[in-house]
Amino acid sequence: MAWFNQLPPGTIEGFEQLLQCFLHHFAINKQYPNTVSYLFTIVHRENESLREYVQCFFEVVLEVPHVSPEFLAIIMQQDLKRGRFKESIAGKPPTTQKELLIRAEKYIRIEESIGSRSITPSKRRISDDEEITLTRTDGNKRECRQNDLTQYTPLNALRAKILSVAKQQGLARWPFPMKDNPKRMTSDKFIIFTGNGDIAQKNATT
Question: Which intervals hold domain Retrotransposon gag (predicted)?
Fold first, then answer.
């Protein structure tokens, strides 16, 4: 119906022309099922696990009609990479699709079991070292960021002399003297610091 509504006005002059347009549109957009030859393109890749390959293979099998189990086993044997499952199919081909699936599940469990045991303690230690290397790399990055700061030439003269020259050149400003405070000047009290860090307030007359 959406295709019919998109037809430009005045382009259909009769039912026969409408029928031809419909058949042409239907033929272009029709999804044809995959053929048996398409199964030969589902090749077991080198870095692909057996479980991933079997799942992909049988997803395509569902789209290919009328494939005998014997021929299906021959195609899978051809597409599989070298391994025990490939040798099993060649030595004793499955006679049903169910038998092929059961045998595939058997060798999937074997492959995954071997893969889980292949992580030895030495490899685990290598993994730990890799993590330490990454941490050290991050530390180096932080040091690089610190090294990006502006580096100044170390002072080789007295600070008092440097400050005097800076003042003469107008590069430094001395703080203004404190204004006289009459209350502070007439006060007869002062602060003393004791040796143990305490502060005491005394009268000037004492």
Answer: 2-68
Average pLDDT over residues 161-179: 64
- Name the pLDDT band for 35 (thresholds 50, 70, 90): confident
In Å, what is the CA distance from 22 to each residue of 18, 33, 75?
6, 21, 39
d(CA 45, CA 32): 26
Contacts of 52 (CB under 8 A, 6+ apart): none
Give the pLDDT confidence score for residue 103 in this predicted structure: 92
Q: Give Rg (Cα) of the chain.
A: 44
pLDDT at 138 over 70: no
**pTM given for the model:** 0.43
Q: Residue 51 and residue 108: Cα distance in Å, rounded?
A: 6
Compute CA 205 distance to the chain's CA centroid, rounded to the nearest angstrom: 78
Q: For residue 153, how far is the Cα from the chain centroid?
A: 44
- 34-43, 58-67, 100-109, 129-138: range with lowest mean pLDDT: 129-138
Query: Which of 42, 6, 38, 36 is closest to 21 using CA atoms?
Result: 6
How crowded is residue 199: how many other Cβ atoms within 10 Å of its Cβ?
A: 8
